[in-house]
Amino acid sequence: CFYILFYMNLIEMYSTTVTESNITLDTYKQLYSKHKKTLLCSCSTITIRYENFISNNITNHPICSSILMKSEWMFALYFKEASQYGVWDFRTTAYSQFKLLSSFCSFSKEIISQTQNEINNNELITLHLLSFEQFQTEVNERIEYFKNSSASRMITFLNYLKNTNNKHYFVSALNTNLVVQTGYYEQNGDRYFKAREVKYDDAEDGMTCNEDSLITRVVLNPLPYQSIPYSIRHQIKSLPNSIIVNGFLTGCTPLEALLQSKLDCLYEVKCLQLLVNYFPKLTEVWIK
Predict the structure, then answer these.
(1) Residue 145 CA to chain centroid, in angstroms?
(2) Cα–Cα distance, 207 to 198 (Å, whole number)
(3) pLDDT digit string (tens) for 39-62?
(4) Cβ atoms 239, 222 nearer than 8 A
């Protein structure tokens, strides 16, 4: 036992540094496969901007690059008497919702552009040559950070809009959360002003926009707005014989309704034809 212990104490480990010159990529790969834990390859340039070695492939939502976001389409959806149709009718909110949708598309493109610039101007800094796996991991993590940051900016902005609407209870000009009526008293001719908050239906204890975020499917009704009684214009519940516009919702504010809409109608030929029937100016847009 004494001999074995003594012999082991005489053994010492030595490390040596081997320098290779005229390194090619293939040579580096071979060396890395054998000495990945100890291999060091100093860089003559320690920083490089991402724009020099990455490319971006940006895909926008098809709606954002379609005719639906053009000013001609918006104009064709506009009705001067939009607020007279009732909360449930798409003619009341279509123009405003598409304007909002267009704004969201523009805002998202702006954020994407900013994110691209941030990525391109970001620098990869390293004193030693990275393996392909190390390089890929570091770059992917950095790009993922920028992507999450851009998504967070969009969500923060939307939450700000929602909270502002909810806390301050802004009155919609479309009469979707408060219906305003003016007129004259028959007895003395004095002018009167009435305001009624929008409810789901005519029930006394029904849900109201003041207390709830009312959302329902949007429809198109064949009745002209002149024949719709004022007494039911402050209700979100739609009239009988109405035609549902698939994927679109309506509610106390166009924003809340749009954020929950799936926009199915825009992918269905039959539904698009329905819009043309109720928004005659759209015919001119299709012709162009």
Answers:
(1) 18
(2) 9
(3) 677 767 778 899 988 888 888 889
(4) no
